[in-house]
Amino acid sequence: MKFLIVIAAGLLLFILPAQAQLRFDNQSSLLLGNLPGSTDKSRTVWHNQFTVQAGPGNWNGQLRLENFNFGAADEQYTHLAQFRLGYQNQIWQAEAGHFYESLGQGLLLRTYELPGVVYEDLASRRQYGFQKDLLGSRIALFQQHWSAKILWGRPLNRLVPPGEKFSDRRPVTLTAGQAETSFDFPLNGGLMVLNAAETTKQQSYGGFFTRINLPLAGDAYLEYVQNAGDDFRFKDLSRNFAGESSHGFYFALSGGRGPLSYSLEYKDYHDLTLNYNDPPNLVHEHSYTLLNRTTHVIETLDERGFQAEALLALPGENLATINHSTAVSQIAGVTSRFEEYFIETEHPWGHSNTMRLFFDFLQENQAFQKKQNQFTAGLSTTAALTAGWSWQGQYEWQQFRRLYQFNSSLNHNTANHFFSFGVTRSQAWSFSVSSEFSNDPLETDRLSTEGLKDRIITVWPAAHIKGSLGENHELRLFWGERRGGTACTGGICYEVQPFNGVEMTLISHF
Amino acid sequence: MSRYRILLSLLLLAGILYPATLPDFKLKDLNNQWNSVHELRGTSLTVIDFWATWCKPCLRALPELNRLSAEFYGQGVRFIGVSTDSPRNSAKVKPVVLANGLEYPVLRDENSEYASRLNITAIPTLLIINANGEIVYRHQGFSPGDEILLRAKLNQLLTDSK
Predict the structure, then answer these.
(1) Distance between CA A234 and CA A193 in Å, rounded?
(2) Does CATH place domain B20-161 in 3.40.30.10?
(3) Are residues A360 and A317 both part of a single domain?
(4) Domain range holding A412?
(5) Above pLDDT 90, what percent of chain A?
(6) Which residue of A426, A431, A494 to mutate against B (max B Cβ within 10 Å)?
(7) Does one domain contain both A298 and A204?
(8) How far is A181 from chain B (nearest CA, A)?
(9) Which of A23, A331, A397, A488 could form a disulfide with B20 if both were Cys (CB 3.0 to 4.6 A apart)?
């Protein structure tokens, strides 16, 4: 029966007229190499994600097939990763299947996708697309001065890979709604409710948000969410307002005038680890390799903090960015503190050329470990060679001291270096080489020797090639060693597994 | 397994026959107003730039796209910026837009839902859409001198459409 349905679906799409507006996308990645530190040294895996979308008239639909092959038998899978059928006009929108949705700024609910990112689960070693979606349905209404949406669905626990039981991947059923105003007034706002039901328990949450248009092109946004018990009765309000129950508070102020633009944000989250939310982190998202890896990852069990950022546009399209963020979290009575100061300047030079300089100071005092006086600095430049050709160079340096609370003999200084150099033929191909150097004993210490040998330098050299194959295909090739660790893309932080070898990715759109 | 292969073959065959077109979508602008992407389209061409505040090549492209937007405005070409910044960075979108003096509309795609519909796998990605709603050009990344290529492409597409 399932076979017939698939065939019928395929034929239906095939025979639809040109107005079907079909789009096809495929991303295929082949890894040939080893996993450093693994007893199984050989690693050859292939991940493929094929998406077809159709949008005749006001209708739209999507099918996404995903498979993972060549690994161990219990790692392999082929599954229908997503399907969706939707209808949209100027007044309302309805969808059924897999979809993404947020309430407010994501303190209670946010599902999302990181397009192009393939995640590898450390436990199962399975690779899969980075999408955290809802499976269910939603209806949204759009009016001139207000909008509303209701949804029912089961959010994906992204950390449980494909191939596991449905009830493990989607253990919670959500019912949620939000209504908000969009009058041409300085003040607008909205209300939201969410109920999360599991097999043995359920929790409900409520909240509100408000937006205020301020003079001098400024905006203020405030959001508060609160646990409402298991029945929306908000029985323990006094306890809640004392900060003892699940709650989240987020405030943002942004704007600018003349050469100065700014944003100022504050957060206060407590017991807000919901697995289907994504509260704003309030830490600068760095694209520099070393800073991206050593960033602070939010602790939604209990965290407060703020972030302030200013952009200063200077004559000649020079631009300066100044950022400061602080976060304090408390778990089981142990306080952790994170502080970061970042400054970056951008200088155009010649025709279309840019140079960036940055300096960063960071301290992180975690429960049993302290990162003291982390200095990071670097420069990057991008410059044109001739018409259509350009080169890029980058160097980053980082140094800090790691202190251990219970064994000071393990304390050590660490330095990291990163450089890259590449040449690009615009819209045709690019080639670059990069390398990291580190004496961080957490990665470089030899287990066979006593004590920490923090003078051992480890190198991660790599070459990258990217080429366009016609207008519809792009080939990316990585050859070398990839250092693992935290990576943040699009505001989401996750772990990248280290790898030695060759990775080929072919992306097609047609 | 075999049924997926058959479906895949049928879909690939169908894909060769039909051109990719721009789906409509409602997104909020910087003033929190809902906008239909189709309503913002140009009469001749539409340029949609997917970018984010943390993406350095995206930021390099913004002043150049702003200049191109002003240059081609009179020929029915409209530029739309789509910020894919998540709530983590959404407070920084307006400051970046103000600092760069962008004059074309910028919409928010905080869950990358619209980017996903168009299978944008890297940013910056710029799409050019013709008057029929067909995606006629896809430009990924931004290197020095790309503004010259984009200007040439826009001129060529405008000439072809006459």
Answers:
(1) 12
(2) yes
(3) yes
(4) 281-465
(5) 54
(6) A426
(7) no
(8) 10
(9) A23
Q: Give B 106-135 residues with CB within 8 A of chain A.
A: 110-113, 115-122
User: Chain A: nearest CA to B155, how far in angstroms?
Assistant: 17
Is residue A316 included in any domain, yes or no?
A: yes
State the pTM of this model. Answer: 0.89
| A86 and A151 assigned to the same domain | yes
On whether residue A24 sits in a domain, the answer given is: no
Q: How many CB atoms lie within 10 A of CB A166?
A: 10
**Residues in chain A within 8 Å Cβ distance of B120:** 115-116
* A278-294: b (≥16 Cβ within 10 Å) or e: bbbbbbbbbbbbbbbbb
Which single residue is written with the structure tokens 């959001």? A223
Binary contact (A78, B1; C-beta < 8 A): yes
Q: Is the Cβ pair B98, A256 closer than 8 Å?
A: yes
Based on the fold, state whether residues A304 and A351 are members of the same structural domain: yes
Do A197 and A107 lie in one domain? The reply is: yes
| Spans of chain B, pLDDT less than 50 | 15-17
Residue B112: per-residue pLDDT = 83
Report ipTM (2 d.p.). 0.84
Buried b (16+ CB within 10 A) or exposed e, B71-107: ebeeeebbbbbbbbbbbbbbbbbbbbbbbbebebbbb
The domain tally of chain A equals: 2
